Structure formats: C-alpha cells, structure tokens
Amino acid sequence: AQTVTQSQPEMSVQEAETVTLSCTYDTSESDYYLFWYKQPPSRQMILVIRQEAYKQQNATENRFSVNFQKAAKSFSLKISDSQLGDAAMYFCAYRSAVAFTGANSKLTFGKGITLSVRP
Amino acid sequence: NAGVTQTPKFQVLKTGQSMTLQCAQDMNHEYMSWYRQDPGMGLRLIHYSVGAGITDQGEVPNGYNVSRSTTEDFPLRLLSAAPSQTSVYFCASSYLSGGNYGYTFGSGTRLTVV
C-alpha cells in the first residue's frame, strides 16, 4: 500500500518570500501521479499542481513549482513570492497510474501542513 | 457551473439519528468517492464507486453505506450516528482514465454528532 508523509505540521513564511513544503511517499509502483492540494479556510479543496511520475521535468504553475525526486520518493512544493492568500492547509496526495481500477484510483493523502503568511 | 455539488454544508445530529449526505456531479466521471477529514489525519477514504451499481469500501467504511444508481449521484448514508463520526466529509469525482487524473471535490459537509 502507498503512504504519503508530510512531517511538518506547520510552517510560516514572510510575505513575498519563498517557502518549501516537504512531502515524501512510499510506493512499489513505477507509474503514478502526485498532487498538491490547497485547502483555505473556506474548506474547498483546490488543486495546486500535479506531477506525472514518468516525466522528469518538474511541474510549474505560476508561483508554484515542485521538486520531484523519484529515486528519493520526494515531492516538495515551492511557493515563490508568497502572498497572504497562500495561507492555507496544503495536502500532498498520490494516485496510482498502474491500472485504472477502483482500488487503484483512490487518492492517498498526507496529513497536511498548515502554512501561515506573515504580512 | 460544472462540478461536484454536495449538500448540506453543515449538519448537527443527535447520537443514533440517521441521515444522508448528497453528492452529485455533472462531468460524467466514472469514479466517485467519499472522504472524511479529521484534524491531524488528512483525508481518509470511506467508500468509492467506479460506476452505477458498483461500490466498494475504503479505509474507514464502518457506520456508512453508499449506493450508486446513476452515474451522477453518490449519496452517503449514516445509519446510526455516533460522536466518532463528527468530521468534515468530502465527495470527490474523477475520470478512471484520461483527463488530468486529479479529483474534483465538493465543498464539504461539516457534521457534528452530539
């Protein structure tokens, strides 16, 4: 079974600075997808960025980028030029791509990290 | 707007009461699922479905029932509510293949059992 670990429960960053959120995972599969979701106080789950394991190039979405280290099973999220609106809980998640069955289609989440942004 | 519609947003139940959380999606997603979110636990899978008439258990299925009579709807039933079911519940859907493989989430239901 796959596991996702977010070992830092809380982090803080100064507005306009850069912060990196860590995530590690464990799997025996070679093909999978990794995601970062943002959950602001509104509770809505918002997809921030995704990474396909077969792609070596790190995904980027505007101020958000990932550092995907497949051999190390590490998937960190970097937020550049942090804004007050970035304050939220962030979840790292894993989805298998081995076979599209029900059991393999589930998202496995880490426990989340609460990011605060200091003005 | 296309997406996942989840109702109600808030609910308070007394121990032993039953209720149904509604979930509907209009994206023709095959896969639908229910998660619960508890502090320090992340999101844990309760039940999932890969199509009409097909459901299966996730990590924490006890005390919950689901059914899927149509592609669009996937209700979650609490048979006899217990305080341990106090949580935030999310419905989420996805394509089984194709698309971006991410999930679309409903807005969540905060359930309190007293």
Please provide the count of β strands of chain A: 12
Which structural class matches the secondary elements of chain A? mainly beta
What's the helix-strand series of chain A? Answer: EEEEEEEEEEEE
- Beta content of chain B comes to over 45%
Biggest interface: A-B, 25 and 29 residues
Strand content of chain A: over 45%
- Percent helix of chain B, as a range, is under 10%
* Global mean pLDDT of chain A: 93
Largest sheet of chain A: 6 strands, mixed
Whole-angstrom Rg of chain B: 13 Å
**Terminal residue distance of chain B:** 35 Å
Q: Residue-averaged pLDDT of chain B, rounded?
A: 93
Sheet having the most strands of chain B: 7 strands, mixed
Multimeric status of the protein: heterodimer
Characterization of the model:
The complex is a heterodimer of chains A (119) and B (114). By secondary structure, chain A is mainly beta. Helix content of chain A is 0%, strand content 50%. In chain A, strands 2, 5, 6, 10, 11 and 12 form a 6-stranded mixed sheet that branches. Chain A is globular and about 45 Å long. The model of chain A has no long low-confidence stretch (mean pLDDT 93). Chain A binds chain B through residues 4, 6, 9, 33, 35, 42-45, 47, 50, 91, 95, 97, 100-103, 105-107, 109-112, and chain B through 31, 33, 35, 40-45, 48-50, 54, 56, 58, 88, 90, 92, 94, 96-97, 100-103, 105, 107-108, 110.
